[in-house]
Specification:
Length: 138
């Protein structure tokens, strides 16, 4: 019975350590996503030409595209689909109304908000290689 005095505290300490590491991993992943989303949202100004110069607009659009590409690492499918929907609505070759552009932007922001509020760790995806797009700003 003396061995139980050693094994039980050791087992409890091991479980506590694993739980703490799991929580730290979740927090770090949440922080990465939040930072990514903040940069994504800040770069949206590039799509409003009236608020920035043409050079700054191009740089912000490129930053948005870079952040979107990085979202493939740890953001849910819904955010990526909504971001591509927004890109499609503001594409210079497509004639979208201001309402359609605003709706696409609102859907993207809502998907980001839902992801941050859910605080879930990404564990699976339905995205395929064909979903990835190589984008350039114009």
């Amino acid at each position: 019975m003396d061995y139980l005095k050693i094994i039980i505290p050791l087992l409890v300490a091991t479980i506590a350590w694993f739980a703490n590491e799991w929580r730290k991993r979740r927090w770090e992943e949440y922080q990465r996503k939040e930072d990514r989303y903040q940069e994504l949202i800040k770069s949206l100004r590039g799509f409003h030409l009236s608020t920035v110069s043409a050079e700054e607009s191009k740089a912000l659009k490129n930053k948005f595209i870079d952040q979107l590409n990085l979202c493939w690492m740890n953001c849910p499918d819904e955010v990526i689909y909504k971001a591509y929907g927004f890109i499609d609505s503001v594409h210079t070759g497509k004639k979208s109304t201001d309402e359609e552009k605003e709706k696409a932007l609102a859907e993207l922001i809502l998907a980001i908000r839902k992801d941050l509020l859910s605080n879930k760790v990404l564990s699976k995806t339905a995205l395929t290689p064909g979903d990835f797009r190589v984008l350039t700003s114009t």
